Amino acid sequence: MGVCAVAITLLPRFGFDQLVHPTFYQRDARAVAAAEAVAMVPSGVVVEAGNSLGPALSARTTVLLFDHRPRNAPWVVADVSRAEFPFGSADDQRKRVEGLILIGYRMVYDREGIVVLNR
Predict the structure, then answer these.
(1) Torsions phi, psi of 62, nearest 5?
(2) Element (H, E) at 48
(3) pLDDT one-digit tens code per residue, 77-104
(4) pTM of the complete model
(5) From CA 102, how far away is CA 42, in angstroms rounded?
(6) Phi, psi of 9 (to 5 degrees)
(7) Does residue 87 sit in helix, strand or coil?
(8) Per-residue pLDDT tens over the stretch 5-17
(9) Which DSSP state fits 117?
(10) Rounded Cα distance, 67 and 7, in Å
């Protein structure tokens, strides 16, 4: 019991203090856009996804890493607003998306730097 009391009194002094504030659990516009983009991809398909978006798809799709190598997946979900592994910059990711559009993919979602392409 004493350990619990000490832990509760020390909570505000550490980063865990944020866990008790409701704002910690609210999504910003970028997180909302990412959730919407992931929801657009049908279950059971193959999708190339950015490093931060792939985990949200892995339970219901076959996820391939969105990188420089074309894999011809029917769906692509990428965050082109910031550099993500394995790209060196957001510009490299945007160029890759532009290249996919040139070969027949169409953009079905574009918000807050999160894009979804379908072929």
Answers:
(1) -95, 115
(2) strand 46-49
(3) 999 999 999 999 999 999 999 999 999 9
(4) 0.80
(5) 23
(6) -70, -25
(7) coil
(8) 776 666 566 666 6
(9) E
(10) 44
